[in-house]
Amino acid sequence: MVRQPRPPSWKTFKTQKSRARRPVLSVRTPRLVVSEVRLILLKLAYNALFLLLAVGIVYFLFFSEWLQIGKILVEGNKTIDRRLVLDVVEPYLHKKIFYIFPSNNFFFIPTSRIENEILADFKRVGSVKAERGFPNSLAIRVEEKKAVLLFCGNGGCVWVDEEGVAYNKSSYAEALADSGEVVIVQDNSNSSLEVGRAVTTAAYVDYANRLWHLFPDKIGKELTCLSTPLSSAQEIRANTREGFLVYFDTNADLDHSLALLRKVIDEEIAGKGGQTACLDYIDLRVTDRVFYKVKDNCGGENAQNNNGENPSAENPESADNPNNPDQQAQPAPDSQSKSTSSPKNKNKKKKKN
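Below the sequence we write its predicted structure tokens.
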């Protein structure tokens, strides 16, 4: 049996017709043929160009004069000579970093080392800041310490900061000329006052300044100078313009000591017809107790001790250690020195009686 072919349908005829109309295109991209020699030359040129660019950048950043420190500014110095500061900075401009890079470059200038060097060489400098300025400048901002006290001894005077550290030394004449409103404390010992070391404590410095400024207002009398038997002693002796001394203990409350001193002057001395000009000294170093001595042949009559005690009239140092039995005062009715207690102690004695 012979199978006859099926007649073409309408869809088959349409598909064959559309295929006959579709153009057939064949596009071939030509291959770029590069020889191996040319490829190697291109790589070498690229590497050389990159190397030249890198060398140029390194030279521009680290070796060109455009980024070398050429301008140095010193600001904030009042008493320190600018040239001395520049002498400290100068050696750091002629060194090598890693034996290759110049230290005067903008990126390599050792600002922290310069700051430490200035602080070590100038004790008067409290703080210093070295800052770079693009492209070739260096600014050094110095803040000098504020002198708050002058300690003067046999070897001259030292300037003391708020912490009690001596940072500068000068002669007595120079100190008096430059002191201005700075308080001067005379050291009566023979100890040497060295720069860079703590002469006293911060509490002592504050006490001396407050005493110098509060004494005229609270007591109504002027002071000529302050002194101490030893720079490390917690004691201040105030010399008044009338000639008598006042002994203070820096560990005691200053306001309380001044109030007690004013009460003694008003009630014990002026209230009984005495004169402060006849005083030799007033000792406030013992807590809530005041010792004072009247000068000989000053017109005042001999007064007895109110408490049956009498400090050594000839040596006020006997009150330095009241707990020492060897320094306890003995009754001396004919002495012209007196001891008066604080009102608190008097009230306690009345209650006991």
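The mean pLDDT is 77.
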